């Protein structure tokens, strides 16, 4: 079976017309790969268009304010990708004099770039024979070859990387890499793959054994933790509110949010009122508290579920340290907060 040739033939006939496939500019390819990490094409495409419009060169991105970069990224999640993107742009401009690294090893030195992204850029932009291994590749190869090694282990990565490197077309590494990713995304899908029209359906081990739904094998992740978030949305008589920037290295680093009260279990009105009374900014103030969402909003992250309530606090005083409600949409916020702001319509 000449998998490489068949894959490329399939790709030639079936590939989608995507903007990053019409260029070998490493800056654009890098942008697309970072955006598409843990993001589907249909969701990532508008962000790619926005970033290449606002920041058409790596110099533009490097010179941007981080807050503006995070605001443009808002809604994609996994915000460390945006922070790493910005940091790497500065590194390319300030340390590498604006020259994008042109080898796999040097691309791998960029913050937020792993083996997959470095392989994609090196092959697409510089024709290096470095095979990509992402979720699409794991799925396609595990099914075609009947591989049961868990993909989220060091052993699994080495096995699949070696196989992909063995299969890659040395004369067309960029085309092969894009072909196998496209194949996994469009034909060998996680659920309901189109086996009837698959070019490998006569040799696919998983299809013959009836194990399509069991592959690829992935070890169970750690148990998801459950948290209770209570956001305090203050509305003062001078049309201001309080919004704070998150510090530290936890979720939503450097993004903005309303003051947060985290509780061990779902909070009652009485508990929140008592907590609010202890806030320095509301000392001696008269206020009313009401719950915005009667039903808890569950915001699911990869490692934790946030059971969220928004509490509206109406004040009879001005907020000297507050932010004008008219400016609140200028701040980069997590999608959870952004959705609230849109629905509440200050």
From TrEMBL:
PANTHER family reported in the protein's UniProt record: ADENINE DNA GLYCOSYLASE (PTHR42944)
GO biological process, alphabetically ordered: base-excision repair; mismatch repair
InterPro entries in UniProt: A/G_AdeGlyc_MutY (IPR005760), DNA_glycosylase (IPR011257), HhH-GPD_domain (IPR003265), HhH_base_excis_C (IPR023170), HhH_motif (IPR000445), MIG/MutY (IPR044298), MutY_C (IPR029119), NUDIX_hydrolase-like_dom_sf (IPR015797)
Assigned protein family: Belongs to the Nth/MutY family.
Protein's name in the database: Adenine DNA glycosylase
Species of the source: Olleya namhaensis
SMART domains: ENDO3c (SM00478)
Entry's transmembrane regions: none
One GO MF term attached to the UniProt entry: purine-specific mismatch base pair DNA N-glycosylase activity
UniProt keyword list: 4Fe-4S, DNA damage, DNA repair, Glycosidase, Hydrolase, Iron, Iron-sulfur, Metal-binding
Domain HhH-GPD: 35-186
Function: Adenine glycosylase active on G-A mispairs. MutY also corrects error-prone DNA synthesis past GO lesions which are due to the oxidatively damaged form of guanine: 7,8-dihydro-8-oxoguanine (8-oxo-dGTP).
Cofactor note text: Binds 1 [4Fe-4S] cluster.
Reactions performed catalytically: Hydrolyzes free adenine bases from 7,8-dihydro-8-oxoguanine:adenine mismatched double-stranded DNA, leaving an apurinic site
CDD domains: ENDO3c, NUDIX_DNA_Glycosylase_C-MutY
EC number per UniProt: 3.2.2.31
Cofactor(s) annotated in UniProt: [4Fe-4S] cluster
